[in-house]
Design a protein that fits this description.
By secondary structure, this protein is mainly α. The chain contains 17 helices and 4 strands.
């Protein structure tokens, strides 16, 4: 069923959320020199999501509903395909999930990269859940995405539209990256020295790792195994532990490609950092060893030491 209709039916939409959806649908975002609607922005990003997988282009077995047309026709540009095709595909559903999220959470809105996170959740619910529950996949994905983005503190990162605001020392992502860089210097000093020599900053590669939870680093099945470990700490009460495990995973990746990094120039290092193909088993094993190495030291103490 269409997620907005279900939210309204179940009285999960507050009045401010309803007003935001009605009044802010045509809020435009800047992309380059063009002004495009939120729907267009999301639709273009979703079209590029997981292009290596046929799954998202397949029909989801549901016709374009009258509810969907009435929801989007006067408020946002519905895909031209709806005029000629009877069935939605999974990209249509993913677009709608993100669109409703953006319109019901205007303070956060939509930012490029959210599509990558939502796609993993949607695939997991649809392909690995029970067949009889598939009619609820859209709603399940929406609420899981909602909780994930809000609970682990990604709101500030996404709200600042990636690098905007990163220059302030108290920006959440800046703090996380500073912790990572200092632990990198302690655990992989040769690589840290090499990065300093070449001018490789964590913003160039680790920012994506932290913000998108490694969605662009692994294939989707390996990624779900990584998330299975990572999301043990997703609750807001464990935000510091969540960040610490993100850092451990990042340091594990660096350790696995360290020898190649030390041999490379700037271009080779950047290529390796952005296109590494490390084994998920080795990444998780390395992160676990790092956690054991630091066992007995609280997460707060680990991060406090990086302030020295």
């Amino acid at each position: 069923m269409v997620i907005y209709d279900q939210l309204e039916r179940d009285n999960k939409l507050s009045e401010p959320m309803k007003q935001n959806f009605e009044l802010k649908t045509h809020v435009e975002v800047r992309a380059g020199q063009q002004m495009i609607t939120t729907w267009d922005h999301i639709e273009k990003d979703v079209e590029r999501t997981r292009k290596e997988m046929n799954f998202f282009s397949k029909s989801c077995g549901r016709k374009f509903s009258a509810e969907l047309v009435s929801l989007t026709k006067s408020k946002a540009k519905i895909s031209e395909r709806a005029k000629n095709e009877d069935y939605e595909n999974h990209r249509d559903v993913l677009t709608r999930i993100l669109f409703v999220f953006a319109r019901t959470n205007v303070a956060v809105g939509y930012a490029q990269g959210m599509n990558e996170i939502a796609a993993v959740l949607y695939y997991c619910f649809h392909e690995l859940g029970f067949v009889e529950d598939r009619e609820h996949v859209e709603a399940d994905t929406f609420w899981c995405f909602f909780r994930l983005v809000l609970a682990v503190g990604q709101v500030e990162q996404f709200k600042d539209n990636f690098l905007f605001g990163m220059n302030t020392k108290d920006h959440p992502m800046r703090v996380s990256l500073n912790h990572y860089e200092k632990l990198l210097a302690n655990i992989h000093p040769r690589t840290a020295a090499k990065f300093k020599e070449l001018g490789v900053q964590s913003d160039f590669y680790a920012y994506r790792w932290f913000l998108l939870f490694f969605t662009q680093e692994f294939d989707i099945l390996d990624l779900m195994r990584l998330w299975d470990a990572l999301l043990c700490f997703f609750h807001a009460d464990h935000k510091l532990k969540f960040d610490a495990f993100l850092t451990s995973l990042s340091l594990s990746i660096i350790g696995l490609i360290e020898e190649d990094l030390l041999k490379g120039d700037l271009n080779a290092c950047m290529m390796l950092l952005q296109r590494h193909r490390t084994s998920i088993h080795l990444v998780l094993d390395g992160a676990e060893k790092l956690v054991r190495r630091l066992r007995g030291v609280s997460v707060e103490e680990i991060f406090e030491k990086t302030e020295d």
